[in-house]
Amino acid sequence: MPGKLLVALVAALTVAAGCGSSDDAGDLNTLTLWHYEGPDSAMGIAWAEAIRLFEESHPGVTVEFEEKGFEQVQKTAPMVLNSSDAPDLMEYNKGNATTGLLSKQGLLTDLSVEAADRGWDRKVGAGPDITARYDERGVMGSGKWYGVPNYAEYVLVYYNKTMFDQRGLAAPTTLEELTAAMGRFAAEGITPLAVGGAEYPAAQLLYQLALTRADRDWVDRFQRYTGEVDFHDRTWSNAVETFAAWLREGYLDEDSAGLKAEDMGLGFAQGRHPIMISGSWWYGRLRSQVRDFEWATAAWPGMTAGSGGNLWVVPKGAKNKELALDFIDITLSQPVQDLLRDSGGVALAPGDAPATDPGVARLNEDFRELSAGDRLAFYPDWPVPGFYDAQVTAVQKLITGELGPHEVLTELADYYRENLAGVGG
């Protein structure tokens, strides 16, 4: 996904002297790297350390950043990777419609041998490795390694503990408790939910509501094409009707249709909304920036959107593949994994010593429980190409009232079915 913090990490690193065109041997001393994690996110912090360790262990080699953002990479990757401008290594969204589609198009390097030889398969482990492997159709879960995650992520409930405590409200561990808390805040004239409808958050919220009644078979039919998908079944219908009811009750604003993920995060971090339902990728930033109130997290009841994190992918046309592989290795090393976890991320291969921060320890433990309980349901935009934009647009129409709940489901169903031919479905 989604989902990671979806802003560009900009770093000013000096390019080694002598670097020139792609035919110039000097290029062998530069690793071109793209990623879109914020500098104060857990991944941004950990990968900055990985860059330092990489340059320390590769004398004369420099890491060169090009500033990118999630939305930009999402829309332009196929074109860029099919050109001479491809980086050596980049972070890319996982799933059939993204990494799977690029692997099917022959734009990514097969990393299967390296995954076994360097032990990445053992470090990533069962569960998170589903989104690293793709078959000849580009469907995740089996086949060759076309990407490597080094963290995990999932959607959870962030809540303003100070505001909850002031009203005697307990941690929202069930949907009923969450709904009751939202009703209490709405009755006081406080819009409880921070939501961003112009990007992924609102569509993920709709999916979360569906997941309260979903099981593995439902998820696999939707995500992995194992059977028919009915967008008007009880699961989807309950989700869209609940979303509409939350709108009517004032649990989220109609104005949220025009807000981006960043606006949502600021709305929660600044204390304007006491609840945010979004990804673990926000944890590190909130931990470093929120000072005016106490906040905490609760696992979403039932299944939840989540998986191994975004992938390191090596473009087929990368000029310095060996350097790219060495960098992936470092991001999976214990020092970097421990730093990622201790900075508020969900690490895949940390050391034995537990996190000292209780909140971070809980964040990681909740993920392990979700994974062990087979409760990770991937992300809603993965099944077909372009579904991200289609979902954002459809849910915006629901928020503004342009479409009714079941008209939104029809729009999603039509897009899904029309675009299945573009993937393994």
From TrEMBL:
Q: Which UniProt keywords apply?
A: Signal
Q: Which InterPro entries match?
A: Bact_solute-bd_prot1 (IPR050490), SBP (IPR006059)
Positions the record marks as coiled coil are none
What are the boundaries of the signal sequence? 1-17
The protein in question is named: ABC transporter substrate-binding protein
Can you name the source organism? Saccharothrix lopnurensis
